Amino acid sequence: MFKHILALLDGSPCSERTLNLAATVARVFNAEVTLLCVVEDKDSAADEQFPASLTQASAYLDRVAHHLAEYGLSKVKTEVKKGRATEVVPTAARSGYDLVVLNTRVICDTYRHTGVMKRMLGSVAQSLVRSTQVPLLMVGNYGSVARYSKPGFSFERILVPLDGSLLAEQALPLALGFAKASGCSLFLFMVRGPAASQSAAAAWDEATPSRYLEVVAARYKGDGVRISSAAREGKPALDISAAASALDCDLIVMATHGNVGAEGLNADPASVTEQVVIKSSVPILLLRGQEKES
Fold this sequence. Notes:
Order of helices and strands: EHHEHEHEHHHEEHHEHHEHEHE
Strand content: 15-25%
Radius of gyration: 19 Å
Number of domains: 2
Helix content: 25-40%
Number of strands: 10
Structural class: alpha/beta
Oligomer: single chain
CATH topology of the largest domain: Rossmann fold
CATH class of the largest domain: Alpha Beta
CATH superfamily of the largest domain: HUPs
Shape: globular
Strand order of the largest sheet: 3-2-1-4-5-10-9-6-7-8
């Protein structure tokens, strides 16, 4: 599934929090990891932790690669590029990689120059989602992030948010493949947001979400992965993040624009995805879905 992993670094401790997670995924799939640092065409001297030249960036990545080798990860390469991150990173991602690992601070490209975190999916991640089909593994800066930074971390449970749409279900094969390779279980979770109309509310009676999840889980019973599920009413983004933490999940796997096509779920799909990425203390594996009729 994942054979070539691209890990984005900018010299900050926040970006380096992704390293153990990237190394864990690499060990699960016996994948090669390439560390990429982009030196942007603007002054970054205001913060000394960010490499300001190609030479500094190269030396920095060499140190990181040596550190990973000490933890038994031998297949590590480094790459330094100069230019705008929103242009360089998607181009690099399309060069044979099947997973990009990044920190939510890195994707918010104004943060390191202004100290202000955008409350939206950052421009680098947006450019990746728009221009590539490469899944993104995103790590936040909140909650139990230290848990994923410790050597010996392993995946035990994956949460997959669903909303009844075919688009959201496109995350299932990716989640299933990840679960089979890592030996963990899947938890299918559905949150019914405010109904768009009374007819939609009537169509989505209390039992409908549970029946839907049972049907979805039944499709994969023969794949050897433990699958459980739950449904509730509430606020999708908040409840997805809360459930992942409460259930001690190690990963959330979701497709972008997952709410599109689900009658009765009228939340802004981009907003749901972005809020989960920003607020979740659990890493998120984000897949760009293809528009389909539900």
